[in-house]
TrEMBL record, chain A:
InterPro entries: AA_ABC_transptr_permease_3TM, ArtM/GltK/GlnP/TcyL/YhdX-like, MetI-like, MetI-like_sf
Protein name from the UniProt record: Amino acid ABC transporter permease
Main localization (coarse): membrane
Sequence similarity: Belongs to the binding-protein-dependent transport system permease family. HisMQ subfamily.
GO molecular function: transmembrane transporter activity
Keywords attached to this entry: Cell membrane, Membrane, Transmembrane, Transmembrane helix, Transport
Protein's GO biological process: amino acid transport
PANTHER family documented for this protein: INNER MEMBRANE AMINO-ACID ABC TRANSPORTER PERMEASE PROTEIN YHDY (PTHR30614:SF41), MEMBRANE COMPONENT OF AMINO ACID ABC TRANSPORTER (PTHR30614)
Entry's Gene Ontology cellular component terms: ATP-binding cassette (ABC) transporter complex
Domain of life: Bacteria
Transmembrane is among the record's keywords: yes
Domain ABC transmembrane type-1: 230-424
Segments passing through the bilayer: 38-56, 107-125, 132-153, 159-180, 192-215, 227-253, 265-293, 353-380, 400-420
TrEMBL record, chain B:
Transmembrane segments: 27-45, 57-77, 89-117, 129-151, 186-207, 219-246, 266-289, 367-388
Protein name according to UniProt: Amino acid ABC transporter permease
Organism of this sequence: Phreatobacter aquaticus
Cross-referenced Pfam families: BPD_transp_1
UniProt similarity note: Belongs to the binding-protein-dependent transport system permease family. HisMQ subfamily.
Domain called ABC transmembrane type-1: residue spans: 93-385
Any GO BP: amino acid transport
GO cellular component: ATP-binding cassette (ABC) transporter complex
Length: 437, 397
């Protein structure tokens, strides 16, 4: 009979003590690991509770939901300390959303929003097909449509003139190519006929616009002076965002160009614009553009020019970061394939660079969206301007009007920016394929 | 040899059409760009001349000597309505710098608190810091300034019912009223003592570092420095016979009298700028601290350093390398954002300049002065921060 004093199998490990696992363990580790920590937890929880509760209490619990004027929101009439005065928002809703856009035409604004959402949502969801077509529609066709809808005027003419300009530009490029091929004594390029044809189409389109044959059908014009509220906020933000990309790409390429003149001009523009506050750029656009141009452009248009240049300069630095991250081998590879500069940039470098900096671009968009509030300083009536105008209405003057207005506008601004920042994180994670293990 | 055939053996490069030669092409592009630029400048100038003549505005900075004739609610240098536009602009510039300096100091402090709180092992604290950053960063700055100004400060009670803080400070819708220091003639002595103290502190510091490098002996540097900087002026204060007194504000029946008042526009602007910038600085600080590998902390522990020394000597210096460049741009952003003061009427450079612009119509000159001032401030800040950045940068082979 043998007796072994050596165990033949391992002892099964005990379960960790109950105080270290599960909710109890989590609480002990994260909330009460030491006495100072416990004090911090309690103080922090109290502050958080106070803040969240006072917001919920104000906007929902003690709020007044219906009423016709300030009487509805006075403590004495209602019988309790009134929170948010939502009837004030309902009454001013049109002003906050559309400014002085005529009531009977507000469907045009709404239609623009609906089309924008229908085009934008599939663009943002990666799984939806036809991205290229979608992008062309959103960035190419939608702006003309939106302008026609919002501003009014002739319905066909803007399309015709855009087609005309594009065709003329295209034809000129072809003709220049033809002239060069003649100088080089190469056989005459076969696309000369197309060039002439396209030029003819372009010129005839522009002539048609001139003759006024298509001045009808028209929609009543709504001057930009009458635009306001969230509409202006969104118009300024969208135009700034859409214009920022091409301006930014051009300036970023210019900054990295080997041509000293081009590089100097790009650097100078970028650094000057980035070195001064947006408000001075807006003042520049508002006060100096009319001085420097023969005819003074529309007030909103001036602001749009200022915002576009400003956001373009910031976008240029974001894109430059992306360009700098592209390895030299990519440029050399493109050159080895015999690609010229536009093709090297357009086909090889820019797609990679832009993809790298998408989060940066989205962040620039968020910044721009917030910056649109500054247009209210140069007398353009955006959401914040509408809010301030709403405060001055004596019919709704009550102690809670201010807070209600700020809560409402705050929720709108926060939702837009928060959505954009979440989307940027989502894109970042999706594009992070190379570094993910 | 004619065009289109291969070059004969002998090494002449294949002839390229002149417009395909990158060098010539470059010249052509630049010439075109220059021509467009010159044309734009020419037409802008000629239009401006015509328009200015029509509006009967004389170009040039001569108007700066004219009498301004408007009041400014906060001035750091003496100001009267009879003084010139030029001086008004300087008053505005100083107000901008005041907001920028106060804002940068407070935002750095709050930003570090937020960034460290974000990394706290305490779940509640890190969540609060997280939501602070999310909420503040996603609301426009002008919105926040207006909120503080219109919804918080303007709804404070009037001077009659002003809140009293510590007995000598009063907060009302007119701003924050506090004791006003009165400097006697001998107060110059205190200033001299302070300057001497600061210089002496830095001399002691460099001597102590040198001695430590040579002999290894340590010297209580921080304690001595504080002693010199704070101690000397205090000694001077008593030696010169206590020349500083305070004029305390008193609450009368209808108004507050005496003391000095910080205007609510300044308070609203500083609160909003500090809160907004601190959210961004908090994220920068968090990223900087997270960029220091945990192995560095562990190495410090294995050397037997205390947690405080690990933080001071190992983690923070390395984190600062990551933090400084983006921190610089936040400082610049804060300075530029202070121009939003015009939205609530705090008399900064843009606000005062806007008043001058409306009165005189000298748009080109005023906007050029704004841009010049902001560019100068930006350049000075970045030069200083770049110098500091180079000093702390990692030195490699």
């Amino acid at each position: 009979m043998t007796t072994s004093f050596v165990r033949s199998e391992l002892v099964t490990p005990d379960a960790p003590p109950a105080s270290l696992v599960g909710p109890v363990g989590w609480v002990r580790k994260n909330l009460f690991s030491s006495i100072p920590n416990a004090v911090l937890t309690l103080v922090g929880a109290y502050i958080a509770y106070k803040l969240v509760w006072s917001f919920v209490d104000f906007t929902i619990v003690r709020a007044v939901w219906t009423g016709a004027d300030r009487e509805a929101c006075l403590d004495a009439k209602v019988g309790w300390a009134v929170g948010a005065c939502w009837p004030f928002i309902w009454a001013k809703f049109g002003q906050f959303m559309y400014g002085f856009y005529p009531v009977e035409f507000r469907w045009r604004v709404n239609l623009t929003y609906i089309i924008a959402i229908l085009l934008l949502v599939p663009l943002l969801i990666p799984k939806v097909p036809y991205k290229a077509l979608n992008a062309v529609l959103f960035f190419g066709a939608f702006p003309i449509l939106a302008f026609t809808l919002l501003y009014g005027g002739s319905i066909i003419n803007p399309w015709l003139s855009v087609i005309g300009w594009l065709a003329v530009m295209f034809a000129v490029v072809l003709l220049v190519a033809y002239v060069l091929s003649v100088i080089e004594k190469k056989p005459v390029a076969p696309y000369l006929n197309y060039g002439a044809g396209i030029l003819a189409v372009g010129v005839s389109c522009m002539l048609l616009v001139r003759t006024g044959l298509f001045a009808e059908p028209t929609m009543p014009i709504v001057e930009t002076r009458q635009w306001g509220g969230l509409l202006v906020t969104l118009v300024v933000a969208t135009v700034g965002i859409v214009a920022a990309l091409p301006i930014g790409v051009a300036l970023a390429l210019g900054r990295r160009s080997k041509l000293p003149m081009i590089r100097f001009l790009s650097v100078a523009l970028i650094e000057v614009v980035r070195g001064v506050p947006l408000i001075t750029v807006l003042f520049f656009a508002t006060y100096l553009l009319p001085l420097f141009l023969e005819r003074s452009p529309d007030a909103l248009l001036r602001v749009l020019v200022g915002v576009s240049i400003f956001s373009g300069a910031y976008m240029a630095e974001t894109i430059r970061g992306g360009l700098q991250a592209i390895p030299k081998g990519q440029f050399e590879g493109a050159q080895a394939l015999g690609l010229n500069y536009p093709r090297m940039m357009g086909l090889i470098v820019l797609p990679q660079a832009l993809k790298l900096v998408i989060p940066g671009i989205v962040n620039a968009f968020i910044g721009l969206f917030k910056d649109t509030t500054l247009v209210s300083i140069v007398a353009i009536f955006d959401l914040l301007g509408g809010l301030r105008a709403g405060f001055t209405d004596p019919q709704w003057a009550s102690p809670v009007t201010l807070y209600t207005g700020f809560a409402f506008a705050g929720i709108i601004y926060f939702s837009f920016c928060y959505f954009m920042s979440r989307y940027s994180i989502f894109v970042e994670n999706r594009l992070n394929t190379g570094r993910r293990r | 040899m004619t065009d289109g055939t291969l070059p004969a053996q002998g090494g002449t490069a294949p002839k390229v059409a002149f417009f395909n030669d990158p060098k010539i092409r470059g010249y052509i592009f630049q010439a075109v760009a220059l021509a467009i630029l010159i044309f734009m400048i020419y037409s802008a100038v000629s239009n401006a001349v015509t328009n200015l003549t029509n509006q009967r505005i004389a170009a040039g900075f001569g108007f700066l000597n004219n009498t301004a004739g408007f009041g400014i609610s906060q001035t750091l240098i003496p100001w009267g309505e009879a003084m010139s536009y030029g001086r008004a602009f300087v008053v505005g510039l100083l107000n901008t710098l005041l907001v920028a300096v106060v804002g940068v100091v407070l935002a750095t402090f709050l930003g570090f608190v937020v960034g460290i709180a974000r990394l706290s092992p305490n779940w509640v604290i890190s969540k609060i810091a997280y939501w602070y950053v999310e909420v503040i960063r996603n609301l426009p700055l002008l919105f926040q300034i207006l909120f503080w100004y219109l919804a918080v400060l303007a709804t404070m009670p009037g001077p009659r019912d002003a809140y009293s803080i510590f007995g000598n400070f009063y907060a009302s819708n007119r701003g924050l009223t506090m004791p006003k220091p009165m400097f006697g003639d001998a107060a110059v002595g205190i200033l001299i003592a302070l300057i001497v103290g600061v210089i002496a502190a830095f001399v002691v510091r460099s001597w102590a570092y040198k001695r430590q490098a040579e002999t290894g002996q340590q010297f209580p540097v921080a304690l001595t420095m504080w002693g010199l900087i704070l101690g000397l002026p205090i000694i001077a204060y008593f030696l010169t016979g206590m020349p500083i007194s305070f004029e305390y504000p008193t609450k009368g029946r209808f108004n507050l009298s005496g003391g000095t008042t910080v205007i609510p526009e300044f308070i609203a602007l500083v609160i909003a700028l500090v809160a907004y910038t601190a959210a961004f600085i908090g994220e920068i600080v968090r990223a900087g601290i997270q960029a220091v590998s945990h192995g560095q902390t562990e190495a410090g522990r294995s050397l037997g350093l205390s947690e405080g020394r690990i933080l001071n000597l190992i983690v923070i210096p390395q984190a600062m390398r990551v933090i400084i460049p983006p921190l610089t741009s936040q400082y610049l952003n804060l300075t530029k954002n202070s121009s939003l003061a015009v939205g609530i009427g705090y008399p900064d450079m843009v606000s005062v300049g806007g008043t001058i612009l409306n009165q005189t119509g000298q748009a080109i000159e005023i906007i050029a002065m704004w841009m010049g001032c902001y560019l100068t401030v930006s350049i000075i800040t970045s030069i200083f921060m770049n110098w500091y950045n180079q000093r702390i940068a990692l030195v490699e082979r």
